[in-house]
Every structure is written in C-alpha cells, then in structure tokens.
Amino acid sequence: MYKTENLENHVLIGKTRDELESFAIQFGQKPFRGRQLYDWLYRQKIHNVNRMTNLPRLFKASLNTNSVIHPLKKISQIESETQKTQKFIFERLDGKQIESVIIKKDNRVTVCLSTQVGCSLDCGFCATGQMSFSGNLSVGEIVDQYLRLEKISPNPITNIVFMGMGEPFSNYNNTIFAARMLNDSDGINLGAARITISTAGIIPKIKKFADDREPFKLAVSLNGTTQKQREKIMPITKAYSLENLLEVSDYYTRVTGKYITFEYVLLNNYNDSEEDGIRLLKKLNAIKCKLNIIPYNEIGNIYNRPSPDRIKSFLSFLNDSAFQVTVRWSKGTKISAGCGQLISKNSN
Q1: % of residues, the chain, pLDDT over 90
Q2: Is residue 343 part of a domain?
Q3: Has 112 been annotated as catalytic?
Q4: Which of 119, 126, 289, 339 is the catalytic position?
C-alpha cells in the first residue's frame, strides 16, 4: 500500500493550475505544460496520462513514473433501485475509507460528498458521529469523489451537496478550495448555485463565509428550538449557542442578500411538538430563509422517526410561516445512504 506521506506531493487530482505549472517545471517542462495537464484532468476529464495527446513523451513518462492521478480508489458500491440511490466506499492512499452517495430524482442527479474521515462533533442522531475522527480530507480527495462519481453516473451530475461524512466547516479551507475547483469555469465548471455546503453551526466560519462572499449555497443543521434541546443532540451548541447561531445566520443573509437553508431533522417526541413548531416560527420568521424538514433516518440508537401523522401534524404548525417549508424524504435509507447514516466500518 502506498504511504500518504510519500505521495501527497505527487497526487495530481487536487492540484491547482499554478501548482501543476510548478509541477511541470520540476520535470524540466515549460509552465504551459502544467496548464495543459490541468485541462486534461478537470475540463476534459482524461485520467490516463497516455491519452493526453499534446504532452511530450518524456513528460508523460515522468508523470507515469513519479505521480498518481487519483487519491481515492473505489472499494465497493451498493444500489437501491427502488430509491434510485447508490452508495460508494472509497479508500484513501493511507487505507482509511470514506463514503459518497449519488441520488437521482427526476432530472436531478445530486452527489453527496464527504469532507472528513469520521467526525468529531458527536451529534447524537448521526451515524458518522459514532466513528472516531481520523482526519480531514485533502482538496484532491474531496474533488476526486466528484470525478469518480461522474464517471460512474449514467446521467450528468446536476448538483453537489457537502453533506457526507464530517463537518465541512471543521475542514474549512480544503472544503472551500474544493468547491472553487468544482466551480472553475476553466475546469469542471459546475455552477456555484448548484453547490451547497452544510454546517452544524461553526459560527466563526459562517461569518467568514459571508464576509468572503463565497458564491455557494449555505445550509445550517438546526434540529432544535431551545438551547438545552439542541445541546443534548448537538454538543457543538455548548460552544456556539443557538441564539448566536441564528444571529450569524441572519447576518449571512443580510451581507450576501442570499437565502439560507435551515435543516431540521425531525425526531419522534423530541423536537416535533406543537411548541417546537411555534418556537421555529418565532425564531425563523424574521430571517431570509428556507426550512427543510428531514424525517429522521433511523440508525438503531435511542431516536426514532415520527409517524406519518405526527410529521403531518408538525408541518401544520408551520402553515403560517413567512418562509418556505419543504420536506426531504431521504433517498437511500435502505442501503444506509440517507442523511445521517453514513459510517465507514474500516476507518481506523
């Protein structure tokens, strides 16, 4: 098995145009050869050096000998035909594994990307939180998930959500650089409005995201209507209070002029009461937002999904909202590919 420390500087996917120019110079080539290599990797999506027809023979030989194109290797995939969802396990060069998902709905094909191996936030309703945290993914490992899934998907990918394993804003720089690479008009060229980054509520990074005017969509995982309630299922609330999270979310909308999406995982007899609905209305009505209700995807812990009647009842409490309310019925629950169900059993 390759060792990451020996190859991290020689993995091509994840390198920017400038980095590939420098990489070409290391092998005695002119900088424009690096730009050609960038075009092959990201715009033309050719990942066989021998097929890169405008590169010199000696440069191709050097690349074949001294570099690795992909930082990930596909280990397995599971498909739910009825839910039109596929889950993939990828292995990094160090042997640790992550999961990614393709979700098809009508003409929309969404890929759900991971940003970390495991997660340190320990949210009580999330399977990934049951894993030990084993590190951040590199820019290349995030981008390579997309490139691998694009090759596999029979239909063009229309949307990306950073909602897989890990907390994207705990790996902020790599997540943002990966999103920019996916958006680059000279490369992969996926529109910024088609890329959504989700966070459990790391307030300083939400503010930075707003102040930097990042063009991507932002989603915040809310899941509670009181400080105490949210603290119990999302320990991060002890460091970043619910009140401050709502304040910075409002700040984001005012600074950027964009809507923010709040995600609300609905847990039976925990956060699905009429009082919770009334508190949601009060807290969110003044914010330029959308609310995405996610009936809980069970993982065998103490929490359960509410009954259909209880879900319907909760939604009725939101009838008078000033914001749009949608329900996300997660695809892929039969193969543990739904929201909050991703967990690698071989992460250590």
Answers
A1: 79
A2: no
A3: no
A4: 339
Backbone angles phi, psi at 319, to 5 degrees: -60, -30
Overall pTM surpassing 0.85 (yes/no): yes
Give the CA dihedral 305, 165, 243, 210, nearest 10 degrees: -130
Enclosing H/E stretch for 34 = helix 31-38
As a whole number of angstroms, the distance between CA 13 and CA 138 comes to: 10
Kindly report, residue by residue over 39-50, the tens digit of the pLDDT.
999 999 999 999
Supply the range of the domain harboring residue 40: 4-66
Q: In whole numbers, what is the pLDDT of the chain averaged over residues?
A: 90
Active site residue 339: yes
Catalytic residue, chosen from 99, 141, 167, 214, is: 99
- Residue pair 112/103 in contact (Cβ under 8 Å)? The answer is yes
Beta carbons within 10 angstroms of residue 135's beta carbon: 15
Helices (H) and strands (E) in the chain, counts: 11, 12
pLDDT on residue 316: 94
Q: What is the pLDDT of residues 95-140, one digit of tens each?
A: 999 999 999 888 999 999 999 998 888 888 887 666 778 899 999 9
Based on the structure, what is the number of domains in the chain? 2
